């Protein structure tokens, strides 16, 4: 039961197909076996998605406004391909904190969609991101430096065999944090124009 002043942790994302998520899991299973001493928070299969906008904690009363904004943003956007490929780290290889798999915007449509979303969210009073858009799938957040450089090196060497997927809808998702990890609930689905 929600209260009037309750806040929800929400974000807008593209769901990654199940077979692709399973390939991602196999990739990081190899990494974990290669450097077992590394301390990291590894993504679970249900949490592998392409985040387009993270809102953080917002009043529950505003959640529907963001769903409406997503619908406006996708209203004239046709489904389009993106490429899941490459491996990298944030912020840099000598001090890795996040392992990721890259997303290539094959025809600039993902960047265009992201810009449309930013415009619509701004109309709802949510500020634009000040950081450049760098689409990626987060594999792990490294907790300390023990084994971090080694796992970053192996991650980049293993790379990730490219796979093209088609973006057909956006999701507005609620994330509830707990000691057992995040629980994700899809609030609304927003199909691209057919």
Protein model, in words:
This protein is α+β, with helices and mostly antiparallel strands. It has four helices and nine strands. The strands form two sheets. The chain has a five-stranded antiparallel sheet with strand order 2-6-5-4-7. Helix 1 (18-34) crosses helix 4 (148-158). The model has no long low-confidence stretch (mean pLDDT 92).
Count of DSSP E strands? 9
N-to-C order of helices and strands: EHEEHEEHEHEEE
Distance between the termini: 37 Å
What's the mean pLDDT score? 92
For the CA atoms, what is the radius of gyration? 17 Å
Q: Looking across the biggest beta sheet, what order are the strands in?
A: 2-6-5-4-7
Instruction: Give the number of helices.
Output: 4
Overall morphology = globular
What is the helix content? Answer: 25-40%
For this entry, give a set of tags:
four-stranded antiparallel β-sheet; about 30% helix; alpha+beta; about 190 residues
Give a brief rundown of this model.
With 194 residues, the chain is of the alpha+beta class.
Structural topology:
Layout lengths: L6 E9 L2 H17 L5 E3 L6 E11 L3 H12 L5 E13 L2 E10 L4 H15 L12 E7 L5 H11 L4 E5 L1 E8 L6 E9 L3
Antiparallel strand pairs: 1-3, 1-8, 2-6, 4-5, 4-7, 5-6, 8-9
